[in-house]
Write a structure and sequence with these properties.
Blueprint (H helix, E strand, L loop, with lengths): L4 E3 L2 E4 L4 E6 L9 E7 L6 E6 L6 E3 L7 E6 L4 E6 L8 E8 L4 H6 L10 E6 L1
Parallel strand pairs: 2-10
Antiparallel strand pairs: 1-3, 3-8, 4-5, 4-9, 5-6, 7-8, 9-10
């Protein structure tokens, strides 16, 4: 069963930054498109960002455009989500998964290829 491992979450103040990491034990992330999702308390899980297998295509939810940056380091077999200018509404558990492709319709309507992991908690205080 394919499952990725998220890390890097924490408590940060309004306007602060965090970098989340997504590792893939035993897999080569360069062959997969990866999506970041988040789920806030009482809300549905939503797509945040995605990156294609080559890293050449990225997409973002409107709510994070200009603040979040997704990247892939194939040498380290890790995908990152750099989050800047954080807001309280960014508070959520963040998940990374393998997806069929970095097309926003895929991110928002298709189930991921890999299983959901434990996620990493991001809390932004005001």
């Amino acid at each position: 069963q394919l499952q990725l491992v998220e890390s890097g979450g924490g408590l940060v103040q309004l306007g602060g930054s965090l970098r989340l990491s997504c590792a893939a034990p035993g897999m080569f992330l360069e062959t997969y498109a990866i999506g970041w999702y988040r789920q806030a308390p009482g809300k549905e899980r939503e797509g945040v960002s995605c990156i294609s297998s080559s890293g050449g295509t990225t997409n973002y939810a409107d709510s994070v455009k200009g603040r979040f940056t997704i990247s892939k380091d194939n040498a380290k077999n890790t995908v990152y989500l750099q989050m800047n200018s954080l807001k309280p509404e960014d508070t959520a558990v963040y998940y990374c998964v393998i997806i069929e492709g970095c097309i926003w319709q895929v991110v928002t309507t298709r189930d991921p290829v890999s299983s959901w992991g434990q996620g990493t908690q991001v809390t932004v205080s005001s």
